[in-house]
Design brief:
By secondary structure, the chain is an alpha+beta fold. About 20% of the residues lie in helices and about 30% in strands. A 7-stranded mixed beta sheet has the order 37-39-40-47-43-44-48, with helices on one face. Strands 1, 3, 4, 6, 9 and 13 form a 6-stranded antiparallel beta sheet that branches. The protein has a 6-stranded antiparallel beta sheet with strand order 2-5-12-7-8-10, with no helix packed on it.
Length: about 950
């Protein structure tokens, strides 16, 4: 019985194995020969208006009846396309035998129109091949115009498209000769101007001796289209950026011959069809135009499924281990909604095409509206000394909300697409708990001359300018060296920890065209022209702000630098995406000069659209201190460029002598404030010094604070401090120097270091709202001058200037050398004072050469009578040297006995009820200063008090 059972089981196993082998062999044969009954094209890829499939304006799009119609063979222009990795070849591909004979020469190694075979008409495209090497043909649009076009068209026609917006299917026919060997197939590829590659492989092999129809579903999110060399996903916005379309033929075995391609055609969405058919188009036969017009009523009747919000999720998510849990964030930390739509949006940055908003109900019952934005994640890859950003995953919609109070929030998402009815999602709740953040920075409600945080704490910006990862002038004029390659984000990863460690809390960063700008000519990599934004640069700005937040640094964000709108100074106008003739082809008609840009209604609307995106994406971030609309507005305008990088000729006063640029600034600042529901302060900026500030605009409420440069040719920065105070202190709002350090074109190393030092200490003695931002950041880093900021930050720690109502005055210094000067910020019962060696503050000596002082005296006038505590601080170490006490008597000055110091010394003088400490005869760390009854100097010949400043 056992043997019989074993025999039966063995026979069954053999039968089962044989059956599997037969089925496998049948599948292999069918896959090799193809199913003769299979349709030549996917049945969906037909002209079926009722289902939303409409034809291209020309059918076929490419027929190759008369010429190549712009198509090329890659081997004839190999630099035009990036290489295609051979990962699509079957793994079991056979290697050629060692003794294989050389491949025969091709009859024709060029791409050509052939009448030998045709699927439609009389001619087709003959493609020479030599397998196993792939053969690639393509058509490239080069720099694509701004028109939102549809299917690919011949480059010789008028309306060159901006890509494949609205295209649903592509189909083409391929003929493979009977003698072709092994597995042969093909793929359709799509490449944007930056080399981002997508491809759609044929669903089957090419069948020898016959025509095979190959189709590709290229709708947004289609599984047919896969990325190559990155993980980004195909969508409608990506389709709008396509520059090249092509076909790659590949085979696994040696074979030399030719393959024919014909009848390249496609189908589009009804909305795309409607727009293109209604548009005048030269070269389209009247018969074809009438044929398409007959389809129009049926296209209009096509209705998409109702608009829907898909895959709504939150960041952070609720705790899955808690029942009825909602997401939790700390106060002033970000809560994010992430979601998709069942629509492909041609331009997701245009609110007319997709308007995403969220109504936010706060715990106190207040309601505000947050705006959504289009987002793409990226993977950061090291490349030489910079970074390469590769798309990661599918782009999506996001809404960011930052809670400003604690408790339960409710967020209701609402989306409107074009003319469709709006759709809303169910309310999403989250809780905000107390946290360590001080909140957003604002103009102080207690004293309009300063800033404060939303929790009510005083905020005095201390930092320097870190506008972008490269500053050519610093390397050329100061270091006399070649600048480093683009350091990108890594520079900020290096600088921000050092800045934070030195007590700095602010950095200025530019959205420059070469760094974090999001809108520029599509002639440049990563940019897409007017009205479309660089998601790569937007992602980088996210990361810069993340870094800043992690290190306690606020970013003063400059939205545009003057060169973008200038023809004569640091001119970038010829690459501005609005310029009618910019090489990217996205310009606006009639915008020939910067003056046209400021006057153009279309340009203003597009610029406000960009401000809307900026506010939607970055206004919820407390790391943004404030918005600066344009850096150095006085340098914009028409003119004649100079030579060899020199300043050209322009009307520098145009920005305030003409009402157009002034009106533009008002309009843009008002729009930005309207978009920004978190109320960041906003301003505009002016070059060189305070004299170029537009005083008219500065006095208006639309400008929350005043910023300018403070460059000059002569040595010594302290005069600039006093002049800026006199010029801008009369406005009832903060003023701030955001660029300084020698001349705009640099100066000597000792002068720059003196300016850095003087800028910190001299400015604190004025009514300025912040330290000036030193321009030469590599100078600070290379000479490790962070210690200058560390010393200053220690001195001002815990100080609150709000409500002091002081003013800048001189300090009388009694010095044997005559080289010491003094300045102070004095209020009724206190003063911050700074005594300094005048020559050292013009050219800073090396540490071992600094002048030393001892037994010097200074006198402060104007304080209220009473007892005062006097602290002496080392300005290079930030250490308190001594504490003394003195009494101010009516009609007499307060005498200061300065301890030994080098170069300069800082003081804090404040009224106190404390008594001086007792001494034991030894030299104490603190000492009482007794005011002499005689010998006190009279008031100086020139007033110790500067001219009074209106408040």
């Amino acid at each position: 019985m056992g043997k019989l059972r074993d025999t039966a089981l063995g026979l069954f196993a053999l039968f089962f194995l044989g059956s599997m082998v037969w089925w496998l062999a049948r599948d292999v044969i069918r896959s090799g020969e193809g199913d003769a009954a299979a349709p030549e094209a996917d049945p969906l890829a037909q002209v079926v208006p009722e289902q939303g499939w409409l034809p291209a304006l020309e059918d076929p799009i490419f027929s190759w009846e008369k010429d190549l119609e712009g198509w090329q063979l890659e081997s004839e222009s190999p630099q035009a396309l990036v290489a295609v990795a051979p990962d699509y070849l079957p793994r079991q591909a056979e290697a050629p035998a060692p003794d294989a004979v050389p491949a025969p020469k091709l009859e024709s190694a060029a791409l050509e129109v052939s009448g030998e075979r045709a699927k439609a008409g009389r001619h087709s495209l003959r493609v020479p091949v030599r397998f196993p090497d792939p053969a690639t043909i393509y058509i490239s649009w080069g720099t694509i115009a701004a028109e939102a076009g549809g299917l690919p068209v011949k480059p010789t026609t008028d309306n060159i498209p901006s890509g494949l917006i609205g295209v649903r299917y592509i189909a083409y026919d391929v003929y493979l000769p009977e003698d072709a060997k092994g597995y042969v197939s093909c793929l359709l590829f799509l490449k944007d101007k930056d080399g981002m590659w997508f491809q759609a492989r044929a669903r089957t092999r090419l069948r020898p001796g016959r025509w095979t129809t190959v189709t590709a579903d290229i709708r947004g999110g289609s599984p047919d289209v896969t990325p190559l060399g990155h993980t980004g996903q195909w969508d409608e916005n990506q389709a709008s950026q396509i520059r090249a379309v092509g076909v790659t033929l590949y085979g696994e075995r040696d074979w030399t011959g030719a393959v024919w391609i014909d009848n390249f055609r496609g189908w589009m969405r009804p909305d795309r069809f409607e727009r293109l058919v209604d548009r005048p188009r030269r070269g389209l036969a009247e018969e074809r135009r009438e044929e398409l017009a007959k389809l129009m009523p049926r296209a209009v009747d096509v209705k998409d499924e109702p608009l829907a919000i898909l895959n709504l999720r939150t960041e952070p998510a609720a705790d899955p281990d808690e029942s009825d849990a909602v997401p939790r964030v700390a106060r002033f930390e970000r809560f994010t909604l992430r979601f998709d739509l069942n629509r492909s949006i041609g331009n997701p940055f245009d609110p007319e095409q997709a308007d995403v908003r969220a109504t936010v109900k706060t715990p106190s019952g207040a309601v505000f509206e947050a705006t959504g934005f289009w987002y793409q994640d990226f993977e950061r890859r090291a490349r030489f000394e910079g970074d390469e950003l590769v798309p990661l995953g599918r782009p999506e919609w996001r809404v960011r909300v930052t809670p400003r109070e604690t408790g339960r929030y409710e967020v209701t998402l609402k989306v409107k697409v074009a003319d469709e009815p709006a759709v809303a999602a169910a309310a999403v709740a989250f809780d905000a708990a107390p946290g360590p953040s001080r909140g957003f920075v604002r103009v102080s409600q207690a004293d309009k001359h300063y800033f404060e945080c939303e929790d009510g704490s005083f905020f005095y910006p201390v930092g320097h300018n870190v506008h972008s990862p490269v500053d050519l002038r610093c390397w050329e004029q100061i270091f006399r060296e070649d600048p480093p390659l683009d350091r990108g984000l890594r520079m900020y990863e290096s600088f921000f920890p050092k800045m934070a460690g030195a007590g700095q809390n602010v950095a200025e960063v530019w959205m420059a065209s070469w760094w974090l700008g999001i809108e520029w000519t599509k002639y440049w990599r990563t940019y897409a022209g007017a009205g479309r934004y660089s998601l790569q640069h937007a992602w980088l700005l996210d990361k810069v702000l993340d870094l800043a937040r992690a290190h306690g640094i606020r970013v003063h964000l400059v939205i545009d630098n003057h060169g973008k709108f200038s023809e004569w100074c640091d001119w970038e106008w010829e690459l501005n995406p609005y310029y009618a003739r910019n090489p990217g082809g996205s310009g606006l008609p009639g915008v020939e000069h910067p003056s046209d840009f400021f006057a153009s209604e279309a340009a203003r609307q597009l610029h406000k659209q960009r401000l809307r995106y900026i506010a939607a994406r970055w206004a919820p971030d407390p790391a943004v201190l404030g918005w600066e609309l344009v850096s150095e507005m006085d340098l914009v305008g028409d003119g004649s460029p100079g030579r060899n990088g020199q300043i050209g000729r322009g009307n520098r006063n145009w920005f305030r002598s003409d009402s157009v640029p002034q009106a533009w600034v008002r309009e843009m600042l008002a729009a930005l404030k309207d978009y920004d529901v978190y109320d960041h302060p906003a301003t505009n900026h002016y070059a060189t010094d305070h004299s170029w500030v537009d005083k008219k605009l500065a006095a208006e409420p639309v400008m929350d604070y005043i910023v300018c440069d403070a460059y000059r040719a002569q040595p010594g920065y302290l005069d600039m401090v006093r002049q800026t105070e006199q010029a801008l202190g009369c406005f009832d709002k903060p003023f701030w120097v955001t660029e300084y350090g020698g001349n705009w074109d640099a100066t000597t190393v000792p002068r720059l270091e003196a300016d850095l030092h003087t800028g910190l200490w001299g400015t604190w003695m004025s009514d300025a709202a912040a330290t000036p931002l030193f321009w030469w950041y590599d100078f600070i880093d290379h000479r490790d001058l962070y210690s200058q900021y560390r010393a200053f930050a220690r001195y001002i720690e815990g100080e609150d200037r709000r409500g002091l109502n002081g003013r800048l005055e001189f300090v009388t210094v009694q010095s044997g050398t005559g080289r010491l000067k003094g300045t102070m910020y004095r209020w009724k019962d206190g003063a911050y004072a700074w005594i300094y060696d005048e020559s050292s503050m013009q050219q800073m000596p090396e540490p071992d050469s600094r002048p030393r002082y001892a037994d010097e005296k200074a006198y402060i006038y104007g304080l209220a009578p009473g007892r005062y505590r006097i602290e002496y601080w080392d300005t290079f170490t930030g250490k308190k040297l001594e504490t003394a006490f003195g009494r101010m008597t009516a009609g007499r000055p307060l005498e200061l006995l300065l301890p030994p110091f080098e170069c300069d010394i800082a003081l804090k003088v404040k009224a106190t009820d404390d008594s001086p400490p007792e001494t034991d005869g030894t030299l104490p760390k603190t000492r009482a200063v007794q005011l002499p009854s005689t010998g006190t100097p009279e008031a100086p010949a020139q007033p110790a008090v500067m001219p009074p400043l209106p408040r």
